[in-house]
Amino acid sequence: MVQTLDATFALPARAPSRRVLWQPWVYLAPTLATLVVWIYWPLIEAAYLSFFQWNMLPTATPRYVGVENYANLLTLPEMGRAVRNTVLYILGLLPLSVVLPTAIAILTQDLSGPFRSLYRSLIFIPMIIAPIVAAVLWRWLLNEDHGLVNAGIEVLGLTPVGFLKDPSIALWTLVWITGWKLIGFATLLLSAANGTIDPGYVEAARMDGASRWQVIRDIRLPLLSPTILLLTMMTILFGAQWSFVYINALTGGGPLQSTTNVFYLMWDYGFQSYSAGWSATAGMLTFAGFGVIAMLCLRLMKRFAVHEG
Amino acid sequence: MNGIDLSAIRKRFGETEVVKGLDLTIAEGEFLVILGPSGCGKSTLLRLIAGLEDVTQGRIRIGGRDVTHEEPGRRGCAMVFQNYALYPHMTVAGNMAYGLKVAGVPRRERAERVARIAGMLELGALLDRRPHELSGGQRQRVAMGRAMIRSPRVFLFDEPLSNLDAKLRAQLRLDIKRLHRDLGTTSVFVTHDQLEAMTMADRMVVMNGGRIEQAGTPQEIYRRPATRFVAGFIGAPAMNIFPALIDEAGRAMVSGGWYPCPDAVWALPPGTEVDLGVRPADVLPGAPAPGRPAFTPDVSEDVGTEVHLHARGAGLDLTLSAPAGAALPQNDFSVSFPAAAAHCFAGESGQRAALRPTQKPERTDETWTATSLSFT
Ligand SMILES: Nc1ncnc2c1ncn2[C@@H]1O[C@H](COP(=O)(O)OP(=O)(O)OP(=O)(O)O)[C@@H](O)[C@H]1O
Ligand SMILES: [Mg+2]
């Protein structure tokens, strides 16, 4: 844009040519088109659909129902449970995507040679496995009758656990699988951030008499806080979405809807029960909810993140 | 009882030995400057004293106590780093108080001590700022404050002024000297700036390649450099060095049969290869004469207080310096210098050689001044 202006100022005698005016828009067009086609248009469409009842058949015409969809969904116990589960997913994921990786990144910073390579492969392998493959692997591992994990538990003389069958455990199993996939990525980010901390700060703190733990608490953690906050925010905003593929592949929201969350519910309304209106309404509610949360997160991040300046 | 005693210190990083068997005693209250070229192990030595690196061999004692295996925080040393290493997420006050906080000093006392030190360093108005909101000189003073606040037994400085401009450097040099005078804390100051070293040091150590070349007062080191390396390293412009051979009489003869300093008779066997040195200020230009190489003036530099003249002769380069306003040779000239101004370094190691006691009377200051004046 700046260049365009310069060009016009540089040639005051001539009228700004047409080419100069539309040229920037040509460059922006692909990005704008993607934004419009994949984000804004579906958003508007969904907002529109949320006021209609429609079974997704091309032959059927959507019927306008006003705010009835919203009224129904907000009072539906199923929706309440999904919201509660969404919160549980996020809370369960935070230790796996933030706390554990922070600890791993700091504890392994001094590793060298073969140990470093070994630990890296161990931690990063889950990251590169396709989610659906991971889901299948975990289903085998956690199978109640023939799974390796339960075999181990039986060897210890304990009763087998229905990891995916027991309504009080299934959600945590899915949290673990989702988090297991995330640990590598989060550790990678935090290790990189930890590696860029000037060793001079740590040395200065050691001269000041700080113990190993005080160096971590007073120097490393504050300097890692932008990355930690970023990961926390990503987990809050996307954690429940990331678990979708495992819910879909492993439990289908069950048993007794104990593992469903708002994203799965949305998909369920749309593509299982073909009620496009409800699905769109759930989508709009989720959008609004997470929009508010995102804004709060950004504000918190600005307030608390320590920047080196 | 806050001196430092280093005995037979060695430090290896993998295969490379960076400090090669070093003994040094630093007296309580002394301001010791370590000077040396880049990579000679100055910082490493300082970090060994601080405890940020472990010695490979040897013992470190501070105040009579063996601290070789102590943690840095428990050695009673405070360090000012070259890039200051101020904690970026803490305010100036937080930076200064951190050491006290870690030591469990109550908040009220911390605030009092920060205020007192800030007063000494004129940092009072900056206490709530973050390091990135400070100028280089201010950061340097905060780093000083952080070092002072725990009343350490030893200050360690690693080129703390090298990131500042010349004027500020001169100012802070004075400030540090004054602080040292007032506090009397044993200080080790690493630098590769000669002027800094000469002006600040009570005692100076010149290092090269992980070894001490010479230790002594700046005057001793300037006037009687112990090795060829020290002679070439200290002094600007650098000392003139002529390769020479000792003749039967013990005098040094430069190739071509030239005796630049016929009065000096060295306590060395005939045939010894030596380097004969003379400071640019001690060179006496004279009229061209047979048997003496002629030097042709090449470039002259006027630095305000004095003038440096670079000249070339048969295979030899020469630098001569004279007070500003003094007459400099315009045409070819020959040179000589008195025995008192001559330095002679012999052998591989370039150790300083002594003058042989002679029958001839040494040149007195009087005759020296007379000769100096003769050309002005
Ligand atoms: N951690 C390290 N690992 C390997 N080699 C090192 C390490 N620290 C220093 N060295 C080497 O030791 C030598 C001395 O380094 P040192 O930093 O003490 O030099 P210095 O005298 O302070 O130089 P300068 O004036 O440039 O700061 C250098 O050759 C350097 O490469
Ligand atoms: Mg150094």
From TrEMBL, chain A:
<dbReference type="GO" id="GO:0055085">
    <property type="term" value="P:transmembrane transport"/>
</dbReference>
<keyword id="KW-1003">Cell membrane</keyword>
<keyword id="KW-1133">Transmembrane helix</keyword>
<dbReference type="InterPro" id="IPR051393">
    <property type="entry name" value="ABC_transporter_permease"/>
</dbReference>
<feature type="transmembrane region" description="Helical">
    <location>
        <begin position="221"/>
        <end position="244"/>
    </location>
</feature>
<comment type="similarity">
    <text>Belongs to the binding-protein-dependent transport system permease family.</text>
</comment>
<dbReference type="Pfam" id="PF00528">
    <property type="entry name" value="BPD_transp_1"/>
</dbReference>
<feature type="transmembrane region" description="Helical">
    <location>
        <begin position="276"/>
        <end position="298"/>
    </location>
</feature>
<feature type="transmembrane region" description="Helical">
    <location>
        <begin position="86"/>
        <end position="107"/>
    </location>
</feature>
<dbReference type="InterPro" id="IPR000515">
    <property type="entry name" value="MetI-like"/>
</dbReference>
<feature type="transmembrane region" description="Helical">
    <location>
        <begin position="20"/>
        <end position="41"/>
    </location>
</feature>
<keyword id="KW-0812">Transmembrane</keyword>
<feature type="transmembrane region" description="Helical">
    <location>
        <begin position="119"/>
        <end position="141"/>
    </location>
</feature>
<keyword id="KW-0813">Transport</keyword>
<feature type="domain" description="ABC transmembrane type-1">
    <location>
        <begin position="83"/>
        <end position="297"/>
    </location>
</feature>
<protein>
    <submittedName>
        <fullName>ABC transporter permease</fullName>
    </submittedName>
</protein>
<dbReference type="GO" id="GO:0005886">
    <property type="term" value="C:plasma membrane"/>
</dbReference>
<dbReference type="InterPro" id="IPR035906">
    <property type="entry name" value="MetI-like_sf"/>
</dbReference>
<feature type="transmembrane region" description="Helical">
    <location>
        <begin position="169"/>
        <end position="190"/>
    </location>
</feature>
<keyword id="KW-0472">Membrane</keyword>
UniProtKB/TrEMBL annotation, chain B:
<feature type="region of interest" description="Disordered">
    <location>
        <begin position="349"/>
        <end position="376"/>
    </location>
</feature>
<comment type="similarity">
    <text>Belongs to the ABC transporter superfamily.</text>
</comment>
<dbReference type="GO" id="GO:0008643">
    <property type="term" value="P:carbohydrate transport"/>
</dbReference>
<dbReference type="InterPro" id="IPR008995">
    <property type="entry name" value="Mo/tungstate-bd_C_term_dom"/>
</dbReference>
<dbReference type="GO" id="GO:0016887">
    <property type="term" value="F:ATP hydrolysis activity"/>
</dbReference>
<dbReference type="InterPro" id="IPR015855">
    <property type="entry name" value="ABC_transpr_MalK-like"/>
</dbReference>
<dbReference type="InterPro" id="IPR047641">
    <property type="entry name" value="ABC_transpr_MalK/UgpC-like"/>
</dbReference>
<dbReference type="GO" id="GO:0005524">
    <property type="term" value="F:ATP binding"/>
</dbReference>
<dbReference type="GO" id="GO:0140359">
    <property type="term" value="F:ABC-type transporter activity"/>
</dbReference>
<keyword id="KW-0813">Transport</keyword>
<protein>
    <submittedName>
        <fullName>Sn-glycerol-3-phosphate import ATP-binding protein UgpC</fullName>
    </submittedName>
</protein>
<dbReference type="InterPro" id="IPR027417">
    <property type="entry name" value="P-loop_NTPase"/>
</dbReference>
<dbReference type="Pfam" id="PF00005">
    <property type="entry name" value="ABC_tran"/>
</dbReference>
<dbReference type="InterPro" id="IPR003593">
    <property type="entry name" value="AAA+_ATPase"/>
</dbReference>
<dbReference type="GO" id="GO:0055052">
    <property type="term" value="C:ATP-binding cassette (ABC) transporter complex, substrate-binding subunit-containing"/>
</dbReference>
<dbReference type="InterPro" id="IPR017871">
    <property type="entry name" value="ABC_transporter-like_CS"/>
</dbReference>
<keyword id="KW-0067">ATP-binding</keyword>
<dbReference type="InterPro" id="IPR012340">
    <property type="entry name" value="NA-bd_OB-fold"/>
</dbReference>
<keyword id="KW-0547">Nucleotide-binding</keyword>
<feature type="domain" description="ABC transporter">
    <location>
        <begin position="4"/>
        <end position="234"/>
    </location>
</feature>
<feature type="compositionally biased region" description="Polar residues">
    <location>
        <begin position="367"/>
        <end position="376"/>
    </location>
</feature>
<dbReference type="InterPro" id="IPR003439">
    <property type="entry name" value="ABC_transporter-like_ATP-bd"/>
</dbReference>
